[in-house]
Fold this protein.
Amino acid sequence: MMVPEFFQDHAPILVVILPLLGAFLTPLIGKASSRAPRYVAALFLLGSLAMVAVLADKVWSQSPIPVVYTLGAHSGSGINPVFRIQLVVDGLGVLMAIIMGIVSTAAVLYSWSFIDKYSGQDKYYTLLQLTAVGAYGMVLTGDIFNLFVFFEISSIALCGLVAFRTERGESFEAAFKYMLYSTISGVFLLFAIGIFYGEYGVLNMGVISEAMSSAGGASVLDKIALGLLVTVFSLKAGSVPMHMATPDAYSEAPGGISAIFVAASQTGLYALFRTSFTIYGHYNPNTGAFNLDTYTLGWIVVILGVLSMFIGVTMALVQKDIKRLMAYHAISQTGYMLLGVGVGIAVLSDPAKMTAFGVDAMRGGIFHIINHALYKGLLFLTAGAVFYRLQTRNLNEMHGLGHTMRFTTVFFMIGALAIAGMPPMNGFSSKLLIYESVYQFNPIIAVIAMLVSVLTLASFVKVFYSAFLGPKPENPPEDAPTSMLIGMTILVAVIIVFSLFPGLVVERLIDPAVRALLFPWLAGGV
Amino acid sequence: MLWQLPFVVSVALVAIGLYICIVKTNMVKIVMGVALMESGANLFLVALGYRENGTAPIFYQNPNPGAEMVMPTTQALTLTSIVIGVATTALLLAFTVMLYKRYGTVDTRRARRLRE
Amino acid sequence: MFGLNFDIKLGLDTDGGTWTALLFALMALVAFIIAYAIRSRGIKGHKEREHVGEPFYFGNIVPSSAWVKSGNVYWGFVKAMERYYRPVRGEHTGNANDYISWMVVAMTAIILMVVFL
């Protein structure tokens, strides 16, 4: 298949620009026809997904060297990263973009039916596309200040969507809390950026790491900035103890948005790994030193991960609200990713351990990111379908939905098996990688991880039992409308492919991401 | 030293803002605290770019070409951050207004139906 | 595009061996077929909904439509873990001030650990 050269050259910026253009077109077209916004949103998000595919091809063909796109300059003509804004796309960035592309496409199709009865649909689709802009921008940019801007764009758009159901006070409460969290974290992110700029006079992340390396490693100010960044990004990812607003926001957001929320939160993980590896894990081949001895940082991330895993899952077990339960599971699953990659960070400066189990841990953690976005997105969509038919999220008021909502039940089962890590689902493959490698790092943590997996299965058995099994309700609800089923089917299809071919997926999708994170390490020839 | 005063003030602003966010239970006051924190961050950025006796960073009408100029990048960053700050503050206030309409209170101790 | 050459790698190589999901799915299918074959050899005249769950009611009258509400599922587990659950659930106050306090506590701890360890 031939792709025109224009798209080949400008794919990185087109990924971000297309939904942005769509976002500003949507309200204009909404004036003419109330049904048009849905098609505009779907069209532009699909276009963006296509651009992600073009970009992915380009990135994987030259992995691990990143694709650099300089804004406002022809490639190769006097590009100085100090004065230019650049998009730097490598394996990890493109993986996150793929996640966002798939989930946002599924969610926008799902939303066609879901918000059909609400007014203000043009605003809904505008904000939905702006969320995609924020997430895409965060994972593709190479400039830390742009990262801040996109961070805020996605936060603001998401909060607007959380408050979409204006008839409920709870949605405003959730939106207020989440907005408060993300605004305050934005202030600290800005402080960290200011520290970098004050010390090195640059904003490009690659150049910052080079400058830090030639200044002889991270100074005390850099370490304070690192502390701020770790807090901010783990808050965005929803890690304990900064998780408090996450269940509120996830559960109050409309069905399709909860799925996008998962993908958008994971950009926080991306940013955390990016700062840990690219800026602070920079290896200087001349002095043979890293910018920072990442052992402590790795342990901090591992501790955050273990706390998130355990507290998330135990809180999920006692929830009565189906979406709130799933939101606590999102926190718990984030713990696995932090754990996997945290082990990688901790052993970064130890080549023997890195090759023995660090690389596998990172593969597991990063594989879990995409798996989680898919199956948790699917689960939130099924919960939204249940809410759409019953107008309640309270598990105590549900029973016997499996009698009539057949497709939703099957989709829920697939998602629940995947999240619980039952073989042969994709959740098992990534958890297997994490267990095996973490066991070599610290056996106790591996045992906790397995226990958490058991509790995950237990709480989804609870949901499945109380919502879908049991006697047939008096007014049995119909199955979800077609567009919602289509949205869920997209995610189910991807999950099944990922489940049956884990080796292929890890080799083609995950390994470029791991190589991108370890690129300075590999190039340094440790 | 005197030229470090802006940094002290910016950190103090953030600290006051955080204190308000933790202690005050009125949501409108919390939003004010957030706005204070944003101003602190903006002041920090502008102070970073300041050079003593520096002129405005405009090349073509520079009265004395040899003189030092303040750094323009941080001012651009600050402008962006002010715009974002306005958006977030407006959104937070809008949420507070709507919350008051639905709950009849802006007290954080009472506006907490979502918990556990 | 995508450099596909169709030598699809089935197994996922881990430290301890290889995980082949397709093989697992195939074996599960075979097991299902065997189980189904055994099941189809059972008594034909059995009514599916008869006597379901009756042993659990110890001879009492079986209610026609009953299910355990989700709030009561895992009651014993939660009861046994009460010493863990009371403080953890108590911390999820839903109060926006507490949210910020937790964030500040975590941030302070992380910065101190990064700087001094």
